[in-house]
Request: fold
Amino acid sequence: MKPNNEDLRDQLRRFQSGDLDEEQILAKIQGYQDLGFAKLDHDRHRRCGFPEVVYAQGKEPADLVHIFEALTSHSDCVLATRAGAAHVEAVQERFPEARHDARARALWIDKRPAEESIGLIGLLAAGTSDLPVAEEARITAELMGAKVSCHYDVGVAGLHRLLDQYDQLRRARVLIVVAGMEGALPSVVGGLVDRPVLAVPTSVGYGAAFGGIAALLGMLNSCAPGVSVLSIDNGFGAGHLAALINRLGESDLES
Amino acid sequence: MKPNNEDLRDQLRRFQSGDLDEEQILAKIQGYQDLGFAKLDHDRHRRCGFPEVVYAQGKEPADLVHIFEALTSHSDCVLATRAGAAHVEAVQERFPEARHDARARALWIDKRPAEESIGLIGLLAAGTSDLPVAEEARITAELMGAKVSCHYDVGVAGLHRLLDQYDQLRRARVLIVVAGMEGALPSVVGGLVDRPVLAVPTSVGYGAAFGGIAALLGMLNSCAPGVSVLSIDNGFGAGHLAALINRLGESDLES
Amino acid sequence: MKPNNEDLRDQLRRFQSGDLDEEQILAKIQGYQDLGFAKLDHDRHRRCGFPEVVYAQGKEPADLVHIFEALTSHSDCVLATRAGAAHVEAVQERFPEARHDARARALWIDKRPAEESIGLIGLLAAGTSDLPVAEEARITAELMGAKVSCHYDVGVAGLHRLLDQYDQLRRARVLIVVAGMEGALPSVVGGLVDRPVLAVPTSVGYGAAFGGIAALLGMLNSCAPGVSVLSIDNGFGAGHLAALINRLGESDLES
Amino acid sequence: MKPNNEDLRDQLRRFQSGDLDEEQILAKIQGYQDLGFAKLDHDRHRRCGFPEVVYAQGKEPADLVHIFEALTSHSDCVLATRAGAAHVEAVQERFPEARHDARARALWIDKRPAEESIGLIGLLAAGTSDLPVAEEARITAELMGAKVSCHYDVGVAGLHRLLDQYDQLRRARVLIVVAGMEGALPSVVGGLVDRPVLAVPTSVGYGAAFGGIAALLGMLNSCAPGVSVLSIDNGFGAGHLAALINRLGESDLES
Amino acid sequence: MKPNNEDLRDQLRRFQSGDLDEEQILAKIQGYQDLGFAKLDHDRHRRCGFPEVVYAQGKEPADLVHIFEALTSHSDCVLATRAGAAHVEAVQERFPEARHDARARALWIDKRPAEESIGLIGLLAAGTSDLPVAEEARITAELMGAKVSCHYDVGVAGLHRLLDQYDQLRRARVLIVVAGMEGALPSVVGGLVDRPVLAVPTSVGYGAAFGGIAALLGMLNSCAPGVSVLSIDNGFGAGHLAALINRLGESDLES
Amino acid sequence: MKPNNEDLRDQLRRFQSGDLDEEQILAKIQGYQDLGFAKLDHDRHRRCGFPEVVYAQGKEPADLVHIFEALTSHSDCVLATRAGAAHVEAVQERFPEARHDARARALWIDKRPAEESIGLIGLLAAGTSDLPVAEEARITAELMGAKVSCHYDVGVAGLHRLLDQYDQLRRARVLIVVAGMEGALPSVVGGLVDRPVLAVPTSVGYGAAFGGIAALLGMLNSCAPGVSVLSIDNGFGAGHLAALINRLGESDLES
Amino acid sequence: MKPNNEDLRDQLRRFQSGDLDEEQILAKIQGYQDLGFAKLDHDRHRRCGFPEVVYAQGKEPADLVHIFEALTSHSDCVLATRAGAAHVEAVQERFPEARHDARARALWIDKRPAEESIGLIGLLAAGTSDLPVAEEARITAELMGAKVSCHYDVGVAGLHRLLDQYDQLRRARVLIVVAGMEGALPSVVGGLVDRPVLAVPTSVGYGAAFGGIAALLGMLNSCAPGVSVLSIDNGFGAGHLAALINRLGESDLES
Amino acid sequence: MKPNNEDLRDQLRRFQSGDLDEEQILAKIQGYQDLGFAKLDHDRHRRCGFPEVVYAQGKEPADLVHIFEALTSHSDCVLATRAGAAHVEAVQERFPEARHDARARALWIDKRPAEESIGLIGLLAAGTSDLPVAEEARITAELMGAKVSCHYDVGVAGLHRLLDQYDQLRRARVLIVVAGMEGALPSVVGGLVDRPVLAVPTSVGYGAAFGGIAALLGMLNSCAPGVSVLSIDNGFGAGHLAALINRLGESDLES
Reply:
């Protein structure tokens, strides 16, 4: 699972030339950097298609800054999800270039040169309360290079709002469908398209919605083919997976 | 809760004239007949709009015949649900006029003069596996005098099948929507009509459908207004309730 | 599902005469108004019998005001449920005519001329803690034109309190029964009347009540016929559905 | 926890006189008899008020006979619950005096001289399907010396059937209430009497009854005071406990 | 269910003599007093052996004072459970004679002449965290006239602490056993005594205790006979039921 | 959602030329064929990328033959899942060309000319008991034109078996990972590749596996990115979705 | 994770000498043998302390024989759990030396020279119905070289049966405690000893035992320290783990 | 279960010499000290290998100080878990020698002379959020005399981080594996070692992790042998049990 010889040779030359310091070359060879309380997986991008993403919630702001420092030394793009106000403040003080989206609770640094986004991901949300999860998916997918078109508040109780988007939906390579309550939207969408549908249940709903379990079960039991399911409120996971699928549509795909 | 004076006076005269025997007049006065192991609620029709219905499953065929004998002596219409082959055979031997529907597992005797059915109940089933439950609902509602129009196999994965029924659905006074798996159909129907929608989850589905729980939760959390929910596979309950609602649309309603 | 030709012709003439502006006529034609983060379903009243209702909880007060502005431009009656103090303050500052009920957490604007309420909905609550849910049902049903009679604190542990209401209960076209804890009240009521019973479990209770699950299961498994169930604490849904059923009793019903 | 000195002295004299053999006196001293695969608790009667009862289900008929042999050598009364046809046949071949009740699935030997039963236990069952559980409770309580009065099929959907028993219910020292489906009967009974109510949920019901969970939760959350709950279908436990409580009402109670 | 003729005759004479005012005599005849938002069950003592008890949690302090005023006008003893600091302050300002126990969260007024307590209830708690529930049971039972002996912190992990109480436990007429975590204590106690054991699971425990579900299931499945179960944290219910059972041991019991 | 004009024009010409009969042209126009008890979705292939697949379990063999007749008249490829021996016998008698795989319980007719399969799907199964589900996935994907490479019995308890497949896994466009018990395999695989991972929990396992719930929850909570989840035992769904994703890698993709 | 150089060198010499054939030496080098549908983990013994154990349930008898052939060619000891009559017959026909225990459903071949068993495992079962699980644990542990002392039917409802074993329990290096119903026994045992307690919940019990969940939760929440939990009915796992722990007590332990 | 004669004789002599006061000698004889609201189990160390540990959460700081006073009078080592800031402050004011670890929420006094730690416990944590639970385990085990080596942030999504620790893991006598989310780490570790693996699920994770249930189920169903499970977040229990097992490896073990 470790980097192959060409990669290593390249890193060793950068170390020789002073481009990497000792700690950095060690992390490259091991595939991770040991901070004591954490082992940062610097090899994640090579193996899984995107650098390790930080789940900020529950972390001390100072620890988050420390992790950002370690990650930015190995990668041009760092993303943290579920970032609160204190996280944002601490990171932006140290990295003024860090960007933030309050609704999606996302915080990121992107020092890569701008490139044109590729393909098309269709992103649907059933209701306005599902937007934080949908936006987390959007930002993740866009950082991974995908073009995303958003269709919000198209729940099945007003079917005409969805059917008006029919032609656009069929143009996407992959669709993300975010819904709470009974989670019926992915089933309806799955019956309209021949592309993969990634369903994301949200904890939106009251009474017997049980924090997203109703939507989760609904999506797992979808009567439409072509639907698979992410965990409750896992917008990041959906955006990441959709971007991987979206890349498959590129004609220069090496596999 | 007991019969009022006029009713009682009428029964007493029928007893005096020999139309009722002693056991029958006693049951009328008490409101139930004590068979030792059961207390048949002969007053149910007056109170709740339909005679007591027998749940056959788990009952000895001989006991069922015994109960049919007691009920037919007080009522012109007797219905048993979940009747198996042995039940049907035993009851039809004693009551050759008893009718039976195998798919709905319903068994009944109806000696009332034919009357024109009233109103309109729209009855939808998402898939073909949901038909036993839907047919139990249909027979119950028809025995209670309702006209029923059936729309089967109109699940949301092929939305055009449902939308083709749009005009007919809007003509019904009340709708019964039967569905298993993710149970999304009632939400879609609820968004199309301004009449009550009675949702019936079925135990159809596999894997994470959990014997109907997924559909039940989906229906309870419907994002469409106007939807209420029956228990899993409870076709009888849906048919009974729909018939009560359907009667409200009659212009000569006394209340 | 879109408005029929007569409706459209009528709207177009109102546009021509300046009664509707361009955004409004567009929303009429599409059946919804696109606010970017939301697609307001202005066609809901025509399809489902009442305008779209706003679930305020979790919405920013400013967003709620924005939604009220959009909805009041298309409808004379707007209702928000689960409105907190901040919602009320923000909306009433912009719309001084907005009314509010603290116990029911309901907030609404009603500019329609007063009309006599129709029919009769019987509304029962088992205990005093169930009142917020019951009152949400009452306000919803009254805004939809129904007459409502309330019978509060009639739980089954003191049966004489319920039986004293017997004659009044039988006069209602439809009954809403709100109960927490073991949720036994709908079963008892269902055995006393021949009208639909809409059961609403509440999250009231402690220990093994599990936030309303005990009451929900109790109601789904009611041994009485004629009972269907709403989601936990869903007073709005019960009021809305009861009002639809109550309308069926009007002699001039078109269907 | 072992027998006190007087008891032991008495046993030792019976051993001396040949009334007990060596194995029997050992079991008395230890408080149990070791059969290798089982340790029969011969001291149970002294400690808990009734000899150890055998749960037959899942046991080999030959093992059951073996256990009956060991128990009858120490006790004049032996009871097995959940006994199937094979159990009955095997035990009755060895002990022709063994008695059996098919509906209650109970099998017992009682060689004690007849005594008048004491006190009064009121035993209610909501529906006819609850009778096997109720009858298991009745036989257990009667073997423990209690008088039992049965009130079957008095479920809350036909309240007049229950209220007709009102005076008799108030005469009991303790009540057992057996019910499936929503399990509402104990709450109603608990509101009518000032005696302990032992609620037994049954696995009767379909769909969302979940094998008795709905009834169990309903009973645990009863809004009436004075109700406690046994496990699902545990008629034996209810009969045993009711008999212990019933004994407290005897004027010669020693405590 | 209403008061019998003698009782009524007596009340009417008290009304005639001015001992009762009009509202009071009405409540006696109806069996409850209608406060609008509540129907106080003044007949509860006659029917169920103790006046209606108030669940304070979630009630406005002013409402609680109002209820205390209504109840004290019909009864010499009033009890509220789950009373917080604000409840206590409000009630004690209006009723300086009201007493309060902080750990048990109980608040009560008792104007009855002192009487000797009767019988004996053994009250066990497995751990120190179970004391609030145990103390709620103790106060309830004592207000209902029972003598209570407490055995706290006798959980099964240190069995010698329990076995030291063996002789005292066997002297009680009925035992209450309060336990959280795995709830094993009632099984052990049930195997030591021939008196009823009322098991109360508490929400004490962490991780997989699931707020008392583990203890609840443990108690329901007790391998010892003579055990029945109350709801999670329901100390009041246990105290009430134990006091009813304890009364059965009085030689002058009328039944 | 209905076929576009070109498609329709083409069908009409085939009708004119006698290539389609009246029932067939009607089904093309409506998008489904109404068999009374079922509405076959002949438009599914155009919309969703593969013809409607039949779930055989629970269907009468004769009904299945009837459905095969209707489907083969519109499509060259028909697939039924969960087919038992009786289904196979009935269908093969009518269609001798039908093929069958016993372990996967799949039954199909494929009259299309042979084409080279495309891309690469990596299919992993954790244990030998997971093979029926894995094989259902394989057959589905192959019928949809995909090349599949199988890696069976590579569960995480013997990690070297999995790591030996490392290079092959990274060559696939998409991976299906089938596992029961704790369902850990998708997490490990997800950390090794940069392609989509479709996780399928199976009902394999005993004790606390709860029919696949443990594996399902494990997969939903995977700590590795790029994983989405199908329903328990849903091999068909995984094969279908993987084939849709696999097609995206074709350079001539039109979108 | 692969075998170290010394081990390999040794295997290669055995191959050279003809002691191993080509397939065997390959399996040694790879650490597993690929049967197509299975990859037998021949390296398991070296890594985990015992050869791979076969779960027979659900396997074809012929497949089981095939697996036994492969395993016996690499190991002197092969064990299958959950073996039914057909498995036993097929394996014993091919391997007459195979031994079988019907109650434990275990089937094994042991060609190792007899050695004295080491240490001491105390094995307790609460009731006679728990014996199949306990015996599976016993046979597993004994095959792994441990001495086991059995204490069956020592449930907490008759505590004297357990306390009589006190001195013997304290002599064991590790204890296995098997119990169903409420699963209280491990807590009591855990409070008596200073050695590890491995708790095994069984699916024994009825009503609310929920197939072992009650016992599982009880054991997880044990108030006694030193207790850890296996899956429901997992006697094999307990025996395996206990044997590993028991080995730690040997003075010649290398670690 | 009480201390043996030698122990008692020794204590009595210390009492005679004034080394113990009257309350202390009483506690030694009884095996516990009765504080009224608690019965401190001073015999726990002798029976279970470590003195009683205090669960601080929910206790009043003053009560905790009181308990520390009582425990330190009988033991040189006292440990409290889940201690908050107020607990720490109160205890350290009275016992300045008390030590505290904020992340592990542990608070302890250790007056024993320093001894070399024995054996080796391998302690793994899957992610950084699992550290509080892991550290609670570490401190507990170290106070019980064990040497502990920590391997943090070695979750299965980056397998190379774990495999790098392979040689060290195999040197431990027993392993503790702490993980949240899907809890896959113990299965992977269990397949790599021949020593006991104690799995501790944590409540870390979001969405469908359900507060640790997903990890708990995953660990219970581990496909690797040699794994047993502690309750969610129960670091203390794992540390305690691991230390007991670790002691078994000492050559001077007496058993």
